[in-house]
Write a structure and sequence with these properties.
5-stranded antiparallel beta sheet; 4-stranded antiparallel beta sheet; globular; binds flavin-adenine dinucleotide; alpha+beta; about 25% strand
C-alpha cells in the first residue's frame, strides 16, 4: 500500500531536529533507519503529518568509551554495533543479540535507537539492555534527561519518551572480569522475530554462579527481568543441572501473549528451557 501523504525534513543537527519536531506538533515523528516505521506507514497503521529524518546525523552515531560504561549513539546501525570492537570487548551480549536481528539488509539500515524507541516486545534489544541495566539518554525541548531502563519501557510499543524527545544514546555499564553472556532466541525460521528470547549474564566465581541477570523477549508487553530465576541462580553450582533448576523460575512474573505463533503456556515452557541454556552458556558450560 502507498503511505498517506506527509511532509519530510532532514535536519542538519540534533538541535534542528528537536526544533522541527516541536514545530510539527503531535503528528510529527522521527524516522531513523525506517525498518519499523516504513512498514507501518505502508500499512497505514501510522500516518504522521511530518517525518523528521535523523538518519543523517553523525552526532547520533558511534560508540564512546566513558570509563566504566560505553555510550552507544542511538543512530548506530545494528551492523555497526555487531562490528564495534568496544562493544565486543565490554558488552558482547549486545553484539550477539544484534546479530540475530532480521537479515543483513535490515541490520545495515536499522538502528539501536530505533529498536529501543519502537519498543516492540518481540524486538531482541530491549531485553538485552534490560539485563545490562542500561540508561537511556534523551534530549527534547526541555533539555537532556536520563531514563533508567526499568522505567523506559512503559507498555506495548510505548516508552517513557515524551512528545518531542529524541533518544540520543544508550549508556551501558561495562561487564567486568568473570562475566559471561548468551542470547538464546527461539524463532520459527532463520532471520525471523523471536517467539521467545532470553538474554543472560552470569558472573562465575570458583565453580559457582555468583550473580546472574536475565532479560526475556516477548514474555509480556515490555521486556521482563526474570528476578526469581536470577535469585535462584545466584550461588548455584555452575552445572547444567543446577542452572536448569534455577531456570525453572524464569517465567515467574511474566505475562506472555498467546498468538498464532505460540500459546502463552508454550512461551512459558520456552522461557524456562531457553533460560537454562542461556545461563549455561553465560557460565561457560554450554
Ligand atoms: C523484515 C524485518 C525483520 C525484522 N526482524 C527483527 C528481529 O528479528 N528482531 C528485532 O529486534 N527487530 C526486527 N526488526 C525490526 C527492526 O530491526 C528494528 O525495529 C529497527 O532496526 C528499528 O530501527 P530503525 O532505525 O529502523 O527505526 P525506525 O523504523 O526509523 O523507527 C522506529 C520507531 O522508533 C522511533 N525512533 C527511531 N529512532 C528514534 C530516536 N532516536 N529517538 C526517538 N524515537 C526514535 C520512530 O519514530 C518510530 O516510531 C525487523 C524489521 C524488518 C523490516
Amino acid at each position: 500500500m502507498i503511505p498517506a501523504q506527509f511532509e519530510y525534513t532532514r535536519p542538519g543537527s540534533l538541535g534542528e531536529a528537536i526544533q522541527a519536531l516541536a514545530g510539527g506538533g503531535d503528528d510529527a515523528k522521527v524516522i531513523a533507519g525506517g525498518q519499523s516505521l516504513l512498514p507501518l506507514l505502508r500499512l497505514r497503521l501510522a500516518y504522521p503529518s511530518l517525518l523528521v529524518d535523523i538518519g543523517g546525523l553523525g552526532e547520533l552515531r558511534g560508540v564512546r568509551d566513558a570509563g566504566d560504561a560505553l555510550v552507544i549513539g542511538a543512530g548506530t546501525t545494528h551492523y555497526s554495533v555487531i562490528a564495534d570492537p568496544l562493544i565486543r570487548e565490554h558488552c558482547g551480549l549486545i553484539a550477539e543479540a544484534a546479530g540475530t536481528v532480521a537479515d543483513p539488509a535490515v541490520r545495515h539500515r536499522g538502528t539501536i535507537g530505533g529498536s529501543l524507541a519502537h519498543a516492540d516486545p518481540a524486538g531482541d534489544l530491549p531485553a538485552v539492555i534490560a539485563a545490562l541495566d542500561a540508561t537511556l539518554l534523551v534530549t527534547g525541548p526541555g533539555g537532556e534527561r536520563e531514563i533508567g531502563v526499568a522505567d523506559f519501557f512503559v507498555d506495548y510499543l510505548t516508552t517513557a519518551l515524551a512528545p518531542g524527545e529524541i533518544l540520543t544514546a544508550v549508556r551501558v555499564p561495562k561487564l567486568g572480569p568473570g562475566w559471561g553472556f548468551r542470547y538464546e532466541k527461539f524463532q520459527p525460521t532463520a532471520q525471523a522475530w523471536a517467539i521467545v528470547g532470553v538474554a543472560a549474564l552470569a558472573r562465575r566465581d570458583n565453580g559457582h554462579v555468583a550473580e546472574a541477570r536475565i532479560g526475556l523477549t516477548n514474555m509480556g508487553a515490555v521486556p521482563v527481568r526474570a528476578h526469581a530465576a536470577e535469585a535462584a541462580a545466584a550461588g548455584a553450582q555452575a552445572t547444567r543441572e543446577a542452572l536448569a533448576a534455577a531456570a525453572g523460575h524464569a517465567d515467574e512474573g511474566s505475562d506472555p501473549p498467546s498468538d498464532l505463533r505460540g500459546a502463552a503456556d508454550y512461551r512459558r515452557h520456552l522461557a524456562r528451557v531457553l533460560t537454562g541454556r542461556a545461563l549455561a552458556g553465560a557460565a561457560g558450560i554450554g
